[in-house]
Amino acid sequence: MCYKKCAEQLSASKPLQFYRLESPQIFLKHCSCRRYRKACWIFACISDFSPVTVSTMSWLLLSLLAVSSYFLWHGISLVKLYLQARKTGWPVLVAPVPQEALWWLVGSVPLRHVFARLLPKPLYYRINMTIYGWEFKARYEPFESIGSKTFMLTNCSVNVLMIADPDLSMDVLKRVKDFERLELGNKVLGVFGSNLLACDHENWTRQRRVIAPALNERISDVVFKESCRQASEMLQYFTSRGGVTDATLQGLKDIAIHVLAAAGYGLSSPWKEEKRPPKPGYKLTYIEAVESVIDNIVAAAMLPAWVFLMPFLPSNLRRIGYAKREFPAHTQETLAEERLRAATRTETQSNLMSMLVKIADDGKQDPADKKSRVSKTLSEEEIMGNLFVFTSAGFDTTANTMAYAVTMLAAYPQWQDWIVEEIDEVLQGKGREVEYTETYPKLVRCLALMVSLFACNDCHSLNMTS
Ligand code: HEM
């Protein structure tokens, strides 16, 4: 091999202890002969070296080489992506960081405030847009300062098309084949298996066809009843304390997760839940596992459970590890229990898990050929992935929307009066005993209020594929 030849030549001219360079040799054997010779020459120039010095120096040099190659590689990608982005004709903003690199994904969120303090403003402004959750802080401001509702954000990993134009957003969202989701998004949302929000177009069509019948009015009925029950329990709790509280937002989060647990898995819990012990053999309950993964979704998706479970880590990080390890076990156990129950009853329960299991199992028994059976069913992994994504996609979205609505109502009390007028008229003192089909369609003002909140959320970021 060429590196051996170099070694022989060099050791003939200067007695180097090459056996000490074993690791660099292994590393450098993939380099060209000239590069290797150069590296050896650098070592040879170190006078009075001891074997240990050579080894330490070589490691230092190699680390330096590895780090500079890494940055060089990202630099080249940045230039390539920038040239591609220029061709679109939209304004281009360059953020010189690798948005999809694991170290950036995990490290950038806690370091955001450090960047904000230390980096020059124009640089921080660009880099911020590659950090998870930037939209909630910067909102429309980047579009305003660029003076365009659409621009390209070029970073070292990917070109991202940023859109703040509702019509264009709708068009892009509809053209799922032309505009794929970010690879990263698929990885994060597909942490427990392929699902509606994390799969290719062909699989999406099949999963959508199989799942659509499960999202029916029976589920909406459960959602409505459970929401009313949870909300009145929260109200009772707050009024019993004189109506003064700082726990409204947490209370709304609890409503969201309890309603999802009821609609998703048929699990009913009181709003003010006593802390229940997990099942034997588990560290967390099912809901605790889901909540913990959702709260730390990026880190949980990118790192394996054992990393979080290392004994020297703090308990909050270990909790993510338990959650990631236990969620699949919990789901499989719950699915097995559901199949046992389903075998002894005639009617399907009104929850998503029960319906998905029924649809998937019926599809498997279809007498048609294998290809047709596959198109009518979901694999166990897809059931698990979809159950997780329904809980995660429904949790923060609804909890934050309710929190936003309550905050806006507090700031603009005249709209509270407008809403209360409608509720009083529709409910007419019926209290909790309200029927979904009869009541919900009449709550037009409530619906208008919630829908109007979405007008503020018209900014989407998508991966550009064409
Ligand atoms: C205020 C509440 C919500 C908002 C603002 C919201 C927003 C969105 C948006 C923008 C998408 C499209 C994403 C894309 O195509 O890339 C989406 C899709 C989705 N959402 Fe929601 N969502 C909300 C509530 C929920 C709830 C409660 C659930 C489930 C319980 C849910 C489950 C899903 C699913 C499964 C998809 C994928 C649909 C598909 O690809 O066919 N969402 N949501």
Question: What is shown here, in short?
Answer:
This protein has helices at 2-13, 22-28, 33-44, 51-87, 102-118, 121-128, 134-138, 141-146, 166-174, 183-189, 201-211, 217-239, 248-265, 286-295, 297-302, 305-308, 315-343, 352-364, 370-375, 380-411, 413-427, 436-439, 444-454, and strands spanning 92-95, 150-155, 159-163, 460-463.
Polypeptide structure, described:
The protein has 466 residues and is mainly α. It has three domains: 2-69; 71-192, no CATH class; 212-463, Cytochrome P450 (Cytochrome p450, Orthogonal Bundle). 65% of the residues lie in helices and 4% in strands. The chain is built from 23 helices and four strands. It has helices at residues 2-13, 22-28, 33-44, 51-87, 102-118, 121-128, 134-138, 141-146, 166-174, 183-189, 201-211, 217-239, 248-265, 286-295, 297-302, 305-308, 315-343, 352-364, 370-375, 380-411, 413-427, 436-439, 444-454, and strands at 92-95, 150-155, 159-163, 460-463. Strands 1-2-3-4 form a four-stranded mixed sheet. The protein is globular, with a radius of gyration of 28 Å. Residues 1-7, 9-52 and 456-466 have low confidence and may be disordered. Residues 173, 196-197, 208, 389-390, 393-394, 397-398, 401 line the site of protoporphyrin IX containing FE (HEM).
What order do the helices and strands come in, and which of them pair?
Blueprint: H1 2-13, H2 22-28, H3 33-44, H4 51-87, E1 92-95, H5 102-118, H6 121-128, H7 134-138, H8 141-146, E2 150-155, E3 159-163, H9 166-174, H10 183-189, H11 201-211, H12 217-239, H13 248-265, H14 286-295, H15 297-302, H16 305-308, H17 315-343, H18 352-364, H19 370-375, H20 380-411, H21 413-427, H22 436-439, H23 444-454, E4 460-463
Parallel strand pairs: 1-2
Antiparallel strand pairs: 2-3, 3-4
Helix pairs in contact: 1-3, 12-13, 13-20, 14-17, 17-18, 20-21, 20-23, 21-23
Protoporphyrin IX containing FE (HEM) is lined by residues 173, 196-197, 208, 389-390, 393-394, 397-398, 401.
